[in-house]
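Key result, reporting period 2: structure in, sequence out.
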């Protein structure tokens, strides 16, 4: 429901701003015209604005102002409408802790316009908008900044009304300070909840905010739930859930639908592939098995079967299950918990490709020659029976380590796995030859003990077993995308656009600081790979790969195919994980509708839950980014808990970033990053040479450079703000 917030106006708020911005009254008038969606009479505007505390003369002056600036138009003698040729956009407010924000996910109001960088919104341009609100903004595209500047005209819809924060009693005032720094205000409580729950200063709470607020720095609210000690792990998880708006339960209707789903609906028209040897390969802790594979040898190469759980057979458009899966967009994985996209009855049972169970699937059948070139591809709705559940560790022991005892135990699978190994190696060579970015990003694996404490943080082990299954999934995803592109049917592609030129240019100076020479000026996949090769096997490898990753754009979902830069693929989509990604479920539905239907000439797209593919792509891309952020923050919180008892210990670290007042280090033997304040460097006064990404001692001339290895001491850990601080030992 759209709303305009009431404001306590100062005389300044009633006049035109000298910097060209609209007054508060001007914004109110324009937002009223936007809400009306049709011409609005001057009398109606006068009545609405007088309720806000303005006089008739002020209102008439401001109406004249917005008309003269071309922001509104006259319709007849006494009616006004929004001039949709002006640069109005709707978007979502993304606040920064410093008190300013950006408008994201922009949609133009009126005619189509060129894509803008996210508009910057200053503190004075916010009105009473908060992080996550859907807003109407007016954008000034004539400034010379990279990001244009915008000002909020009104709040179309409030974001989350619940916040996690910390309770304090300050004299006679009861306040909650939001844990999320993107909400730079405090919440004033009019009263405490009527319960026996004891509240201590610093306790974590969930607070419900009042919708209307006249001040951007002070909001009224009520405590909805007391969480207790914020250092407890379960409280930390709950605070992340609130911060990122993650659903944790399914509605009774969705759960009822999941229980009522037939085990094998409509098997008669499916291709029976139960005689084809299929198996799954996943991590040790995996519970939902999206994909099973099988490889058979042909006279001229190999045939690959990639069979994916047919979630679309169970989750129908318009159902409660579908609506809630779309809302989530993706499953969220924490080291100690999973927030699934689908109820467990489906994700861990009916849709999961459990060994020795008949399961409905959609299968990509791909024929390769011995060099890894695709000779043919087809798709079918199928029924399979997975023969075995393998883990990456077991496959590594069979293929890489050639463990004799393990190989004897799995003797019937040795020949099929040999075929799979030979096949996986060939497409990988073809992909690298075609131009695929080969960054090596080592991920941290956090293991918890039985008490929920962090036991270890180690490098996530990767071997050829991981690469094998990844190559098969990539092949299937590309085959689906290529088929849709060849037919001219629309698809929800997974696109990865070319790197940001400004970020690449900035990285060039860092590369020089590393003593590296990129091959050529154009950032092609080969350009990236040449840099990675130069530091392979050195302590600088992790830092360089991380810095290179920052130059790449984020992959996203879109029906407008722009190719996939990172894979060097002109056509790519996500097809292989419909249990945990809604985008894959959309692709399955499109595959069924256009490739498997009798009328294969149709190009008309059905709606996705009443939305276009473009809308779905934007929403699911945002849900993916939100989920990744939540997973990363959970990992950072756990790392802080792991390091907290180690204050005073010394570590080897590599300098990863330098600024005027601080530099960042990554510990070499632990997957932990932290901050070093320049004030902790006591042997000299250091100056920041920003062109060469280094610090230089003013007296000694001592140099500290990105990529240097130093010894640091852990000085402080702030679990609640996820900050870890170090100081050099010499």
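The corresponding designed sequence is given below.
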């Amino acid at each position: 429901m759209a709303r305009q917030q009431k404001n306590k106006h100062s005389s300044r708020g009633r006049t035109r701003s000298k910097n060209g911005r609209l007054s508060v009254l001007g914004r109110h008038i324009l937002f009223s015209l936007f809400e009306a969606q049709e011409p609005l009479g001057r009398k109606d505007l006068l009545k609405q604005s007088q309720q806000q505390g303005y006089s008739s003369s002020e209102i008439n002056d401001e109406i004249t102002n917005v008309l003269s600036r071309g922001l509104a138009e006259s319709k007849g003698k006494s009616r006004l409408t929004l001039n949709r040729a002006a640069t109005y956009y709707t978007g979502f407010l993304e606040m920064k802790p410093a008190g300013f924000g950006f408008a994201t996910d922009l949609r133009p109001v009126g005619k189509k316009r060129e894509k803008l960088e996210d508009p910057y919104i200053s503190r004075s341009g916010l009105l009473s908008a908060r992080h996550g609100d859907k807003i109407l903004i007016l954008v000034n595209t004539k400034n010379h900044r990279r990001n244009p500047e915008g000002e909020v005209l009104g709040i179309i819809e409030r974001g989350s009304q619940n916040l996690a924060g910390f309770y304090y009693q300050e004299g006679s005032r009861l306040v909650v300070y939001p844990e999320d720094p993107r909400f730079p205000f405090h919440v004033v409580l009019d009263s405490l909840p009527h319960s026996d729950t004891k509240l201590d200063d610093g306790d974590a709470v969930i607070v419900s905010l009042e919708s209307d607020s006249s001040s951007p720095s002070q909001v009224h609210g009520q405590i909805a739930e007391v969480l207790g000690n914020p250092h407890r792990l379960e409280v930390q998880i709950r605070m992340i859930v609130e911060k990122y708006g993650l659903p944790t339960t399914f509605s009774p209707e969705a759960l009822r639908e999941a229980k009522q789903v037939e085990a094998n609906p409509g098997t008669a028209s499916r291709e029976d592939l139960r005689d084809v040897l299929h198996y799954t390969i996943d991590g040790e802790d995996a519970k939902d098995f999206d994909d099973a594979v099988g490889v058979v040898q042909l006279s001229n190469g190999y045939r690959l079967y990639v069979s994916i759980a047919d979630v679309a057979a169970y989750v129908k458009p318009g159902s409660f299950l579908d609506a809630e899966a779309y809302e989530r967009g993706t499953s969220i994985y924490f080291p100690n918990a999973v927030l699934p996209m689908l109820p467990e009855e489906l994700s861990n049972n009916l849709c999961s490709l459990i060994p020795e169970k008949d399961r409905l699937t959609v299968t990509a059948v791909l024929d390769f020659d011995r060099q890894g070139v695709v000779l043919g591809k087809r798709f079918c709705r199928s029924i399979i029976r997975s023969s075995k559940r393998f883990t990456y560790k077991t496959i590594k022991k069979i293929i890489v380590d050639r463990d004799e005892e393990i190989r004897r135990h799995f003797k019937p699978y040795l020949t099929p796995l040999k075929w799979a190994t030979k096949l996986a190696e060939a497409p990988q060579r073809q992909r690298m030859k075609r131009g695929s970015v080969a960054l090596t990003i080592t991920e941290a694996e956090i293991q918890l003990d039985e008490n929920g404490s962090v036991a270890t943080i180690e490098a996530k082990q990767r071997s050829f077993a991981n690469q094998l299954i990844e190559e098969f999934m990539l092949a299937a995803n590309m085959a689906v995308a290529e088929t849709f592109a060849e037919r001219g049917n629309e698809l929800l592609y997974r696109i990865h656009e070319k790197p940001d030129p400004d970020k690449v240019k900035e990285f060039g100076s860092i590369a020089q600081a590393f003593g590296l020479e990129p091959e050529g000026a154009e950032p092609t996949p080969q350009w990236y790979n040449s840099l990675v090769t130069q530091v392979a096997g050195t302590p600088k490898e992790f830092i360089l790969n991380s810095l290179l990753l920052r130059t790449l754009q984020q992959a996203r979902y879109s029906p407008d195919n722009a190719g996939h830069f990172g894979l060097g693929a002109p056509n790519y989509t996500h097809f292989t994980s419909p249990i945990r990604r809604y985008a894959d479920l959309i692709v399955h539905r499109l595959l069924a509708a256009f490739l498997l239907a009798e009328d294969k000439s149709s190009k008309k797209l059905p709606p996705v839950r009443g939305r276009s593919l473009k809308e779905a792509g934007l929403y699911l891309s945002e849900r993916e980014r939100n989920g990744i952020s939540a997973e990363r923050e959970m990992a950072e919180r756990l790392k802080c808990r792991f390091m907290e008892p180690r204050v005073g210990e010394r570590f080897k670290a590599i300098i990863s970033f330098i600024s005027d007042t601080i530099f960042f280090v990554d510990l070499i033997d632990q997957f932990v990053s932290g901050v070093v304040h320049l004030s902790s460097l006591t042997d000299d006064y250091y100056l920041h040479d920003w062109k060469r990404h280094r610090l230089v001692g003013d007296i000694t001339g001592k140099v500290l450079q990105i990529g240097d290895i130093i010894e640091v001491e852990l000085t402080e850990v702030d679990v609640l703000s996820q900050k870890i601080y170090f100081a050099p030992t010499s």
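Residues 12-140 form one domain. Residues 1-18, 598-605 have pLDDT under 50 and may be disordered. This case is discussed further under Risks and Mitigation.
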